[in-house]
Amino acid sequence: xxxxxxxxxxxxxxxxxxxxxxxxxxxxxxxxxxxxxxxxxxxxxxxxxxxxxxxxxxxxxxxxxxxxxxxxxxxxxxxxxxxxxxxxxxxxxxxxxxxxxxxxxxxxxxxxxxxxxxxxxxxxxxxxxxxxxxxxxxxxxxxxxxxxxxxxxxxxxxxxxxxxxxxxxxxxxxxxxxxxxxxxxxxxxxxxxxxxxxxxxxxxxxxxxxxxxxxxxxxxxxxxxxxxxxxxxxxxxxxxxxxxxxxxxxxxxxxxxx
Length: 258
Ligand SMILES: C[S@@+](CC[C@H](N)C(=O)[O-])C[C@H]1O[C@@H](n2cnc3c(N)ncnc32)[C@H](O)[C@@H]1O
Fold this sequence. Notes:
The protein is α/β, with parallel strands linked by helices. It has helices spanning 2-12, 32-46, 75-87, 101-109, 122-131, 172-183, 199-208, 249-252, and strands spanning 56-59, 62-65, 91-95, 114-119, 139-141, 155-161, 184-191, 218-222, 232-236, 243-244. Helix 3 packs across helix 4 (101-109).
């Protein structure tokens, strides 16, 4: 019933005009780390979160479970790692890296990739260092809703997983996207809840208004093989053999939000 009421409310609430952001972020980031730790425990009941050598293999452009009896990765994470492996960047930057599992897993699957993470919360980064001591020095503090800082590394690929979804204050998600496109030379990858912003419309408009300085922009999505699982969006400076993303409805039509 609550889900139905939420859907009706979302349907009746007009999306904000370009640049006319509303509301607050979905969490108070000063205390979010407590909830995040609890969510990780829940996630680990059903999924493997930290990969060990040989758990998954990447071959024929697919990332597949290789160890029998192992809990599978969450499909969002599998699709993210598979997409990064396919794009084969020299370096990646995760914005909102939280406890660092995605960076650690990408490094395990593709050791040649140079990894970097940034998060606005020192408490989250403390969790990252506890969980992944090997990532010490890889991650640091940056609030991506602030203007660009030259202390942030520039990379081939910049990605988020469940971050822009929660950034709802004013125009903050536009600034975060602009920073991501500023950081990435080749691709920006987004794994987000597609109902929370008009990602296609916003990125297209930002490019048209020269807020994204790439000479060309191609928007794609990759659908999960698993029925009723979410898509991932790839914004690229060059053409890729992925399905072009033509509108926002493609992302929300048949797939439940993450
Ligand atoms: C839902 S958690 C996701 C963490 C991680 N990506 C994952 O999938 O486990 C959102 C993360 O984004 C971080 N975050 C939120 N707003 C941010 C901002 N403006 N700049 C950088 N990080 C931010 C939070 O501190 C938190 O670690």
